[in-house]
Amino acid sequence: RKEVEQDPGPFNVPEGATVAFNCTYSNSASQSFFWYRQDCRKEPKLLMSVYSSGNEDGRFTAQLNRASQYISLLIRDSKLSDSATYLCVGRASNYQLIWGAGTKLIIKP
Amino acid sequence: EAQVTQNPRYLITVTGKKLTVTCSQNMNHEYMSWYRQDPGLGLRQIYYSMNVEVTDKGDVPEGYKVSRKEKRNFPLILESPSPNQTSLYFCASSLRGSGISSSYTFGSGTRLTVV
């Protein structure tokens, strides 16, 4: 089993819809979590950290479920500019980051 | 502007010809790291450095070398490139490697093709 696993997608979603995707993690990647966004052929950029109590940043909400070992990202009122690959990241106990392979999201007009 | 600068952006080379990809950051970050990204595999860490003269292997170090003589620079060296090193490479830095919320700043990437 991969340490951080994501559905590669693509998720094709109409503009304005709400979309959610999950990421599962193993014990070795469980110290803390992040969501990064990566546009095609560009560098990843931090979208948000994921806190135990869940956190929200505008249209984006991240949740952590330690019992089931998954984190989620919810995007409300999706925009065309949200089209990207979303990378789930876990931090190991040695502070190294462990990256999921990414979920591709395509927002259609 | 705070940034991580990688060069070159694109490189096509032949098997066995030594090459260096440079990485420089202007944020006085202690931690720097190199990743390669291949389709379906996500980012895999090659080497990282916690500070000057401190480097360590990541998950896929074979065929690569690094050095950290100065805080700002962290070059990636391929002594004898092979076609399986064809990939998209990213350099990243963060203030320090530890810490719950240390986020990474990435360079723009280097697309390497070894023929």
Task: Indicate the topology.
The complex is a heterodimer of chains A (109) and B (115).
Chain A: E1 4-6, E2 11-14, E3 19-25, E4 32-38, E5 45-50, E6 55-57, E7 60-65, E8 70-75, E9 84-91, E10 97-99, E11 103-108
Parallel strand pairs in A: 2-11
Antiparallel strand pairs in A: 1-3, 3-8, 4-5, 4-9, 6-7, 7-8, 9-10, 9-11
Chain B: E1 4-7, E2 10-13, E3 19-25, E4 31-38, E5 42-51, E6 54-57, E7 65-66, E8 76-78, E9 87-94, E10 105-106, E11 110-114
What is shown here, in short?
Chain A is mostly beta strands and 109 residues long. Chain A is 0% helix and 54% strand. Chain A has strands at residues 4-6, 11-14, 19-25, 32-38, 45-50, 55-57, 60-65, 70-75, 84-91, 97-99, 103-108.
Order of helices and strands of chain B: EEEEEEEEEEE
Main sheet summary of chain B: 7 strands, mixed
| Helix proportion range of chain A | under 10%
Q: Helix amount of chain B, in percent?
A: under 10%
Strand content of chain A: over 45%
- How many helices of chain A? The count is 0
- Find the structural class of chain A using helix and strand composition: mainly beta
What tags apply to this protein structure?
heterodimer, A: 109 residues, mainly beta, five-stranded antiparallel β-sheet, 11 strands, globular, B: 115 residues, seven-stranded mixed β-sheet
Could you please describe the fold and organization of this structure?
The complex is a heterodimer of chains A (109) and B (115). Chain A is mainly beta and 109 residues long. Helix content of chain A is 0%, strand content 54%. Chain A has strands at 4-6, 11-14, 19-25, 32-38, 45-50, 55-57, 60-65, 70-75, 84-91, 97-99, 103-108. In chain A, the strands form two sheets. In chain A, strands 2, 4, 5, 9, 10 and 11 form a six-stranded mixed beta sheet that branches. A five-stranded antiparallel beta sheet of chain A has the order 1-3-8-7-6, with no helix packed on it. The termini of chain A are far apart. Chain B is mainly β and 115 residues long. Helix content of chain B is 0%, strand content 50%. Chain B has strands at residues 4-7, 10-13, 19-25, 31-38, 42-51, 54-57, 65-66, 76-78, 87-94, 105-106, 110-114. In chain B, the strands form two sheets. In chain B, strands 2, 4, 5, 6, 9, 10 and 11 form a seven-stranded mixed beta sheet that branches. Chain B has a four-stranded antiparallel beta sheet with strand order 1-3-8-7, with no helix packed on it. Classes of the chains: A mainly beta (109), B mainly beta (115). Chains A and B meet through strand 5 of A and strand 5 of B.
